[in-house]
């Protein structure tokens, strides 16, 4: 740490008069000065300098495993959605059956009617449990797995429909590994999760016992053994993010040859898949499918029966009487994530409604909470970011002219979606009954399965969204070459219609740059502008890119998140794509900020220069903290780096060093030859 002292600005909130919008427009800085820790130098820890007081004075709510900017905004969004849902519930009787407001209202009512839920007990699951109890061989197991998938019970192998990554003008079915109740395969083999496995077996036994299942404890141990067998064939998290390795196209006959022990036709019959739906299927983990076939031969059918009974109970536990809800939360909330308290029932009710008829709620949300002016300003932001990418591609030293031409063509072809979809989903075919919670959830799941399978053979629906307007998040979809920014994330500190450009470009601008950057990260760069999985790089460019990615993997693998011991390191190989996105977002976001202020300049506000506020805006976005158990869990399964390390990713950006005068000896200093710039 350097002993140099940097003068910090006084505690005052400033407004800036910005010529870009005319002399009569006044913009606020957008930085939360009350959150700053002025005893920390930004040259040593930007994340703590920007968020330290908040970190020290904020307790993680009891119903949260982690808490930060995203969670704060989710609380706001959830409260707004609650208001809309409860309004719909009050008006439900005046609405015709099948109308969005009636469906939203009746579904929420079915979740909040706790007296009815307690009265019914296990009755809503009896048909499912009886079906499982009748399994007497592999054929009846396969049929039950197909039928129960329609009810929302994930089986040993799961399916989804998406554009074919080798032929993105057509839909295809993908098959994905499954069958586990713990977060991923590492929990079944690594010694550090031994206590979790012990707690998992105890949890299974207690939940089965609540359901009156005989010999519950003995069955729990055998269920863990069966899942451990399945986990041996599971691919790990790093392999699963490899776009090329996980694209394995097969005909239906080839699929059957991978696991001849599994009655595929029987499973499809139970799933009610249309004829020909699986004529071509992309198997993401072929060795798992083969391993599943071997497990069907080696494991006793009674163990499969117990395993499936457990997964039915686990999937629906949160919809059952309070004793089941409490037991389910005790393991998946307290044990796995360290979360002391379950969410209030109304919050859980909002989640159920959103999972079943989410766009019906989203339509109400967008009408009330997303002004047209916000969309217009966002479109301007996106335009500047695209231009920043174009300029970056023209100057990247490692990118050849051939690859640059393809990269710009991909950039020109990408689609931004902002706020909410142009076409809303029609849920009117779902029967929603205010007295049948579990039935509502089951019918909505079957609706989604049928809706997705019906896409096969149809043109790609480019109006479809895979995130709700009320969701505080964003995504890039490589096979569609599109970025999507729901309305709920477009609010402070990500985006403030009244704020100066510096914080908006450091917040939502860099986040947009991050999502756009996924089109050019270690996996997204394998897709061309049409969304096809195609190698459009020169061999030399790919080697140079991979070398830069490896440097980033090695850099982040040295980091330990704040609050954990040194034996808990970031998995640099798992997080490399998101780290590339963060660095690209920062670099491109800053360039776009320069473009936006070419004529109006970068004013100083609150004693901070425009460039300083840009990087502070970035660190402000990642404000957050996690309980120890959750932080450890996320290191195993989350492709994103911990929040403090994301906030301090700026150490790779030369403009950050220049903005704050970072020097050798400062904790945030990286030698120039160690800084990684990919985009």
From TrEMBL:
Q: Which UniProt keywords apply?
A: Hydrolase, Metal-binding, Metalloprotease, Protease, Zinc
What InterPro entries does the record point to?
A: MetalloPept_cat_dom_sf (IPR024079), Peptidase_M13 (IPR000718), Peptidase_M13_C (IPR018497), Peptidase_M13_dom_2 (IPR042089), Peptidase_M13_N (IPR008753)
- Do the record's keywords include Zinc? yes
Q: Provide an example Pfam family for this protein.
A: Peptidase_M13
Specify the species: Terrabacter terrae
Please report which protein family the annotation says this sequence is part of.
Belongs to the peptidase M13 family.
Query: Which segments constitute the Peptidase M13 N-terminal domain?
Result: 42-421
Q: Which domain of life is it from?
A: Bacteria
Stored CDD domains = M13
Required co-factor(s) are:
Zn(2+)
Please report the name of this protein according to its UniProt entry. Answer: M13 family metallopeptidase
What are the residue boundaries of the Peptidase M13 C-terminal domain, all occurrences included?
473-676
The UniProt record lists the keyword Zinc:
yes
